[in-house]
Amino acid sequence: LSIIALLTDFGTSDWFTGETKGVLFGIAPNVHIVDITHQIAPGDIRSGAFALKASYKSFPLQTIFCVPIDPDTSGSCTAIAIQSDRYTFVGPDNGVLSWAVEDEHILSIVKLTDIRFFRNPLSMTFRGRDIFAPVAAHLSEGVSIKALGPILMGYKHLPVPVPHVTGDTVSGEILYIDRFGNIITNITKELLSKNSSFNFHSSGINQVLPLASTYDSVEQGKAMIYAGSTGFIEIGIHSGSAAKEFRIKCGDTVDFTAL
Amino acid sequence: LSIIALLTDFGTSDWFTGETKGVLFGIAPNVHIVDITHQIAPGDIRSGAFALKASYKSFPLQTIFCVPIDPDTSGSCTAIAIQSDRYTFVGPDNGVLSWAVEDEHILSIVKLTDIRFFRNPLSMTFRGRDIFAPVAAHLSEGVSIKALGPILMGYKHLPVPVPHVTGDTVSGEILYIDRFGNIITNITKELLSKNSSFNFHSSGINQVLPLASTYDSVEQGKAMIYAGSTGFIEIGIHSGSAAKEFRIKCGDTVDFTAL
Amino acid sequence: LSIIALLTDFGTSDWFTGETKGVLFGIAPNVHIVDITHQIAPGDIRSGAFALKASYKSFPLQTIFCVPIDPDTSGSCTAIAIQSDRYTFVGPDNGVLSWAVEDEHILSIVKLTDIRFFRNPLSMTFRGRDIFAPVAAHLSEGVSIKALGPILMGYKHLPVPVPHVTGDTVSGEILYIDRFGNIITNITKELLSKNSSFNFHSSGINQVLPLASTYDSVEQGKAMIYAGSTGFIEIGIHSGSAAKEFRIKCGDTVDFTAL
User: Are B180 and A42 in contact (CB < 8 Å)?
Assistant: First the structure.
């Protein structure tokens, strides 16, 4: 049994996602389709790359990830598929696949060129429906990745912001802010020492926060640092929004100094 | 294998859509359910009709479309099913099915009256859950459309705004604005000449725009005219929102003059 | 064939819901997953409890409801499963299951302790993905509820606001406001007499409303009282939002006096 997981910026208010599923079922009538999310901001490759990296390992082996976050929508950005020993990824070669794929043992990268596996007719503005979805569906039906087009030697890497350690201070940046207002940094939990509290510093912010294990380790309304479910250090508020409290946004720099 | 595609104004914040799927699976345990969208504005028959027309042909043959966009919710609007040689449509007879169905070769139209195919008990205010969904599920299980109620000779047509050509000018109106701010007109691509640029005119707007094939045919932030994925002419901005830029809304009139 | 129905506060803009489905399919590859909603306000146990009570009976027998609305996210709130003669419910023991379960004939209540049925590794902040979803998936695969952990003798009840009848007046409170602006009270339809109109009173409101059966029993823009699809009395406006018109919110008290 085959799973296709969709991660897009199509939104849910128009018919784009539903129509894309119609195309998938037309080719792969028995596939399970899972929506990771469709609410990546239009063309926000970085948030798409992070959402994919954060979620893909929870899916069963052999899942096919279809990620048409594709601000260029045309031939100026190559359409690709990447197969690892565990998963397959389909999307534009603009870096949106790269943060997930760099953790994988890659077997093949191909350029999607064989129009037998595309929708017919082919529009010029909706590659999600017309190229990426049909290709994902054909892969789930057993088409070999090598049938899709010529082998590529590499793919575009989106730069990964790297955290830095200087003495007792770890510096990084904000990768993502979730629905609950939790602030996800690029700092893995291994980089933070086991101290019980840290000075948290960012633009206009200078505050001592405890390192906690769960939200209710602190009182309601209080902030804390913790290792989030993605493996990265987060800043959160018990029953509140840290993003609102600290007025912080993606890309902002932060540092934590052990106390 | 059977597909039921749902297109509603139920939203996704309450339980209405999920509960409706519970009803569907209770009757048709092996059906695939596809959400086209649930975010049509409450009672917006015209947007629902357009979303159905724009998307339905991408679904596999024999798909059953269940479209309970039903501002009257009661006996004052007949509940109907329409079967063509390719698809089946279930919904209120208020025009929401009409823009799709008029492209189809219709075999049967019936009035839904046989309560054996309705939910029991039957509420007075939720025909989506209690009539349209159960009927769609019974159809997917093989019940004949003619078992559902008496044959009708016609269905309600929602007026289709017709574009006009006068010399070098094509006049039409705005049918839909999508998540990306792309403006979809009622002008089919065949009506526009092959000129490379047009004067775009609407209330307070008078601007020369290029006819492009893809968003990145123009610079980021620049507007263009193009044939959209629905087959209609659209106005869009590369990596931007044309609807915001031009402050245009559904129903506004537009014209394009070849230059 | 097995159904797992999800009712969460995960939202749909991040990957939380999709990732949870990846976990479910990894354990139960043939399950049908139904989203009731993911847009309960973060940690709003009362709205979650109402949405579950309002919807669960429309699902097929044996459906497993997974309801990780879990503001405490940690060991301070017991994780439980409750099996009735019709359904199974999985979630935190904070009352979110209680309004549905109190209508059921309960067979077993267990504390979820056996980590063989949890995700490995186990995060400290995402019990929906790591405990509730895997347990629901194992139940759908045939694991006995008694294998999950020790039997409990009870579960936490969320207080149910009780309506009061005094002479010709029924007093209650607002339980939920839906997408359409319909106001759902805690007053069951049996409590209201069959009079044709009532004086509706709430903070700053004193208005005579008809008791109607469907929205179009009154003119467009006019308000009415009716028995909603959940079995409770609602206040609605034909083609409008009663919540906006009356500026009413969840928890507000209301009374209706027969005229």
Answer: yes
